[in-house]
């Protein structure tokens, strides 16, 4: 789809294509017939849309608000983009019948990294969590 325009397909995720020219990048992500893109400049965004429009019928819906159930928040003054998984978390709470639980701050310090080494190993540790469904 994009390779003819100088894009490279990601080996880790074939739906992701990128192009870098003169320190300017364009990144696209494709799901079936939906394309989400980001460019380092408005010029590159326009170019990508023109290239796609030459091969496909496009409907530009402007700035995306959601991606894979995550809300996209933009801060134009800082240039930051953040993703919020609040809706996903609320769905998981409902799924495990915890939607009426009391919210508290995490007991872990900010920046904590969890790994497989943190999983229960002994029979006592396994018994301690056996009734927890997550």
Features:
134 residues, alpha+beta, 2 domains, 3-stranded antiparallel β-sheet, 3 helices, 23% helix
Number of domains: 2
Helix content: 10-25%
Assembly of the depicted chains: single chain
Report, as a whole number of angstroms, the end-to-end distance: 40 Å
Strand order of the largest sheet: 1-2-3-4
Order of helices and strands: EEEEHEEEHH
State which percent range the strand residues make up.
Answer: 25-35%
Average pLDDT score: 85
Number of strands: 7
Question: Low-confidence parts lasting 5 or more residues at pLDDT below 50?
Answer: none
Descriptive report:
The structure is a single chain. It is built from three helices and seven strands. The protein is elongated and about 60 Å long. It is an alpha+beta fold and 134 residues long. It is 23% helix and 26% strand. The strands form two sheets. The chain has a four-stranded antiparallel sheet with strand order 1-2-3-4, covered by helices on one side. A three-stranded antiparallel sheet has the order 5-6-7, covered by helices on one side. The model has no long low-confidence stretch (mean pLDDT 85). A hairpin with a 4-residue loop joins strand 6 (70-75) and strand 7 (80-84). The chain starts with 7 loop residues before the first strand and ends in a 5-residue tail after the last helix. It has helices at residues 42-55, 86-95, 123-129, and strands spanning 8-9, 16-21, 24-31, 34-39, 66-67, 70-75, 80-84. The chain has two domains: 3-62, no CATH class; 64-101, no CATH class.
